[in-house]
Amino acid sequence: MDIEDMIVDLNDLTQDGVIECPYCHKGKTYTYSAKGKESSNCHICRRLVLWDFDQMKAYKAKAKKYVS
Ligand SMILES: [Zn+2]
């Protein structure tokens, strides 16, 4: 696939929410009709966060092991 095809202009999407990192409150996730949950590390403080798009909340998460 051409690398150009992988670039998305976020302004073309309808942003419907922002969730703050529960640790640092600086890291934010912007949602675009997202549903469900996602675990990922905050890009500011690097701590593991469970982002809940249904509740529009973020939780401090812990995992015994990482699955890739
Ligand atoms: Zn953070």
From TrEMBL:
Name recorded for this polypeptide: Uncharacterized protein
Organism field: Hominiventricola filiformis
